[in-house]
Amino acid sequence: MKAKEIRELTAEQLSAKLKELKTELFNLRFQHAINQLENPHRIVEVKRDIARVMTILQQKNA
Known about the structure:
Helix Hairpins; mainly alpha; 3 helices; single chain; 62 residues
């Protein structure tokens, strides 16, 4: 997800997106642990999306 797309979301939508991404990261880590993950790079992408959402959320709250 691009930073430009994230900036267009409201604070409530950002919080919901953050929760969704954290759940996805948990599921990806679980799949990785039991060797069922097809694309390990997806973990890195989700972590970066979480960081982007958290950064923009902090900027909107400040």
